[in-house]
Structure formats: structure tokens, C-alpha cells
Amino acid sequence: MTDVATAVPSTVPESEKPSTDPTPTIAPAAPIPTSLSPASVGPDPKVLAQEQQTGKKLGLFTEALPESKPDPETPLNPDQEAKYAGILAWAQALGPIPVSSEKATTTREIDDEEKMWLTRECFLRYLRATKWNTVDVKKRLEATLIWRREYGVLDHTPEYIEIENQTGKQYVLGFDRNGRPCLYLNPAKQNTEKSPRQIQHLVFMVERVIDLMGPGQDTLALLVDFASSTTSSNPNIAQGRQVLSILQGHYPERLGRSLVTNLPWFVYGFFKIINPFIDPLTRAKLKFNEVMTLHVPAAQLDKKFGGECDFEYNHSIWWPEFIRITKERRALYTARWRELGSKIGASEFELKGGSVQDPIAEASEAVEKLEVK
């Protein structure tokens, strides 16, 4: 049997290590939030026990290593604050919108799911993507709301999508050095004929990855390995352009970095053809054949990508665990949104469990209390 001590990295977050002490310790009392944080959803103890027994990583890392932290948010200048306030006011007053992009279509009011999607960070992502052009932001936000309805983003169930992931051609494992969840793509493991569901699968996975993002992080890392891929297993030009259109149009500022390795000659040609359609900001985030550990800690990087994590995709274990974790996190995120007033413009940082209390102000308040005593 594989030596567990060497097969499973010892630098995983403490919350994801199986307990070896049969006597539970009593944690000190702590304030109980009105609802649990989405980040409180962790791995199934049964999966952790299987990992301990096999020496393989079979599930997900649900939190980044302590040293892997998001970059601090850049404060807005007065002009940006004014533009953000204008977009917030516009969204709060938004009336019925079309249910599809077809002409003469019906309209309906935005629902709670759509209001919850219209967060502070959502507005900022669209503002940055349009270089703070508020006219464009309004057009693009409404276009995305219509697209989400028409495409059926929330209607693609795990049961409908599951067949696309039977071979593990996409999976989430670990976080990069900035706390971004890592989505792995393995084109060589393509298992279905080209169809709309292949692209729906990618959208489904991106939506779930967003659920795994911690407070202060709203971008993902994409790791693509073209080893053993063929022309038939890779997306064609039409699919590539459709994916780019969806990601750039409806998920702006969501890609933090993209790491591509083992690029064959025919894929170079593919990138050359679609390159004109790639946004310059996105193009700058593409890294080819770089050492992966420069961007992802070895302890949370799949060994097949040069890391130390001996990950084995077992669909019967990984897929149910992935669906459970993301579903529970989404439920807690939704509960927090409702507790905070079901508002358009809510803070994703707070919805994901982050504290909005200014630490400097908090420290000053504590000092004042001591002085009073």
C-alpha cells in the first residue's frame, strides 16, 4: 500500500486533514453568525477517510493554503465612486426586461436570483471591463441578464450535465497562490460528440467554481493540459468562438490567470485563428508552458501538472462531493443575502462570510473601551 504520509501532502489546510485524535477538543466560545459562512462547508469525512486509506486525493480542497491570499482591493477614486453609485441606482430602478434576445419577446420583472447576481462586485467587474463607460455597463448588464434567462444557466441540472464529466475532463482541485480556485481542463478525455451540452458543461463548471471562491476573491485560475489530445478531442473554431463570446461577454473579469501546457502544433494554429477574438486583457492572462508551481502551490497542484498532490479522478466520489459542496455553499450564500435585506448591490465579500468591519476602526474602538474603564 502507498505510504500515506508521503502520498498526501502535509501542508493541506488544517480543516481538511482527517482527525487522528479520538477525543474531541472543545473550541473556545465564539460569536455565532446569523447564518453559517459558505466557507464552513468542508469535505465529507468519509471521503477524507478514503483518501487516508488510499493515499490519493479523491475530493476537493475547499480552502486555500493560509499563505495564498487574494490581492487587496484597489480603492475607488471619486470619479469611480460616482460611476459605481450611478450604476447601482440604475440597477435598483430596473424594470421588466425581455426573457430572450428575440424581437417582440415578452418581459418580466427581475427575480431574487437575478437581484442576488447584481452585487457590488458584479457592477465593478463590468465597470472595469468597459473602462468605466457607464452607458456600456448598462447595456452589457441587461444583455447578460437576458442571456442567463435565454441560455438557461440555472436550468442545467447536475443530472443533465453529469455525462459530460464522466471521464474527468474538467475538475476543480486546489487554489492558486492568490486564492483562486483552479479549474482543470483535459481535452484528451473528451467523451461525447460535439453538441451544445459541451459548452453548457463549461458554463455549469464556471458557475460552480464561483461558488467555491472565498471572500475577497472573484476570479478563477484555468489550467489546461493538451497532452495526448487530438484534433477531434479539441473544440473546433465555431465552439472556440462561442466559448469566448460567452466568457468575455457574460463573465467579464472572472479569469485571473490561464495556464496552458503541452500545446501541440495543431492547437497553436487554433489559438492563432481565434486570437483576434480574444480581449487584450484576457490575452495578457494566458501563460504557455510555464512551471505550474510558480502559480499554484505544489501541495494543492495535481501531480500530473507538476505538483505534489496525487489526485485521482474517481467520478463516483468526486462528482457527488463537488455537487454537494457547491450546492450547500450556494444555499448559505443565498441565506446570507436574504438576512442582509435581499438587496441589489450586496457585497459578495460579506455574502461569502468576510467581515466588513474595518480592522483599524475595530482596534481603535477596543482601545477607547479600555480607556473608558
Automatic annotation (TrEMBL):
<feature type="domain" description="CRAL-TRIO">
    <location>
        <begin position="160"/>
        <end position="313"/>
    </location>
</feature>
<feature type="region of interest" description="Disordered">
    <location>
        <begin position="1"/>
        <end position="79"/>
    </location>
</feature>
<dbReference type="InterPro" id="IPR036865">
    <property type="entry name" value="CRAL-TRIO_dom_sf"/>
</dbReference>
<dbReference type="Pfam" id="PF00650">
    <property type="entry name" value="CRAL_TRIO"/>
</dbReference>
<dbReference type="InterPro" id="IPR011074">
    <property type="entry name" value="CRAL/TRIO_N_dom"/>
</dbReference>
<feature type="compositionally biased region" description="Low complexity">
    <location>
        <begin position="20"/>
        <end position="40"/>
    </location>
</feature>
<dbReference type="InterPro" id="IPR036273">
    <property type="entry name" value="CRAL/TRIO_N_dom_sf"/>
</dbReference>
<dbReference type="InterPro" id="IPR001251">
    <property type="entry name" value="CRAL-TRIO_dom"/>
</dbReference>
<dbReference type="InterPro" id="IPR052578">
    <property type="entry name" value="PI_Transfer_CRAL-TRIO"/>
</dbReference>
<protein>
    <submittedName>
        <fullName>CRAL-TRIO domain-containing protein</fullName>
    </submittedName>
</protein>
<dbReference type="GO" id="GO:0008526">
    <property type="term" value="F:phosphatidylinositol transfer activity"/>
</dbReference>
<dbReference type="Pfam" id="PF03765">
    <property type="entry name" value="CRAL_TRIO_N"/>
</dbReference>
